[in-house]
Write a structure and sequence with these properties.
The structure is a single chain. The chain is of the alpha/beta class. The protein has twelve helices and 13 strands. The chain binds pyridoxal-5'-phosphate.
Length: 314
């Protein structure tokens, strides 16, 4: 953490959980009450909705704002939620699916609001290692001691090293009281033990995986730029939202003129490509598709050829 993000983490702040999504569920159960509202910023990773709603809490949406092919936070809407009594938020940083790596000013602004309105932030930073050149991941909790005191940071080797099946994640909770409440929830559920293969895989990845990660990042970034460049040659009607990190691209297909509810099926049936349908990321995802570029470039070439052919049939 110190090497990569310039964030000094005390070992005792780190708690393990069998996944980030289970960790979010522990946090929601441990720290919020039934009916409480939790802010999220759609379009966003669908399990955020599920983890809030399936635990009897309520989603409060603060949609991201899009301008010139770039998404930003809507601070006015965030402040209006916070000033009307909402006390919790799940932040996605970097953001899946829009590919934003939040910059220092944005995080400082959010931190100021969170401290002012006494918000607890569940900061899902699972994508923190997959950030492209020209951008830097800044953990929200590293912005100031005040925000660290009210932030739970969720990280994992699973995206970075493709180890999701090992069920291992790291939750950093500097605040002693919040950490105790979080750990008590894990104990209540009898989930204090982790899979020993996950521990070995996670340790091996962190200890020996840095060179591999460097190469992966160069490859992913090339994939991202490659798709954006090629897509713009194929059609002006699918815009690739400028990616700053992650291995998912957010494709703006609104100009295609295909009704939102038919869009995903168009790519499946006409191109043989299964994107993630934009609407599963919230209503703000209508007209968008999410493309996974964590694959060999040859596969991407095939996909692009198929898209070009399918568009001709339109
Ligand atoms: C933002 C975000 N959080 C969490 C996860 C999954 O975490 P886990 O497998 O540790 O539950 C993903 C996977 O796509 C993700 O995009």
């Amino acid at each position: 953490m110190e090497n990569r993000y310039n964030w000094k983490v005390q070992p005792e702040w780190v708690v393990h959980s069998p996944g980030v999504v289970p960790g979010l569920a522990f946090a929601i159960n441990a720290l919020t009450d039934p009916g409480d509202k939790v802010v999220i910023q759609p379009p966003v990773y669908p399990p955020f909705y599920a983890v809030i709603e399936e635990n009897g809490r309520t989603v409060a949406e603060s949609p991201l704002v899009e301008a010139n092919n770039k998404f930003t936070m809507d601070f006015e809407s965030l402040e209006s939620h916070f000033s009307s009594g909402v006390k919790y938020m799940i932040l996605c940083s970097p953001h899946n699916p829009v590919g934003r790596v939040w910059d220092k000013e944005e995080l400082q602004h959010l931190a100021r609001l969170a401290v002012q309105y006494e918000i607890i932030i569940f900061s899902d930073e699972i994508w923190s290692d997959l950030v492209f050149s020209g951008h830097r991941h800044i953990p929200l909790a590293s912005i100031s001691p005040q925000i660290a005191d009210r932030t739970l940071t969720f990280m994992a080797p699973s995206k970075t090293f493709n180890l999701a099946g090992f069920y291992l994640s790291n939750i950093v909770i500097p605040n002693h009281e919040l950490r105790e409440q979080f750990c008590a929830q894990i104990k209540r559920l009898g989930l204090t033990h982790l899979n020993v293969f996950g521990l070995v895989a996670g340790e091996a990845a962190y200890r020996h995986g840095e060179m591999w990660l460097k190469q992966l990042l160069a490859y992913l970034e090339k994939n991202a730029r490659y798709v954006a460049r090629k897509m713009s040659k194929i059609t002006s009607k699918i815009k690739v939202v400028e990616p700053e990190g992650t291995f998912v691209l957010w494709l703006d297909c609104r100009q295609l003129g295909i009704p939102s509810q038919e869009l995903n099926n168009f790519f499946v049936s006409e191109a043989g490509i299964a994107f993630n349908d934009g609407v599963i990321f919230g209503a703000a995802g209508q007209g968008f598709q999410r493309m996974n570029i964590g694959c060999p470039r040859a596969l991407i070439d095939q996909a692009l050829e198929r898209i070009a052919a399918a568009l001709k049939s339109l």
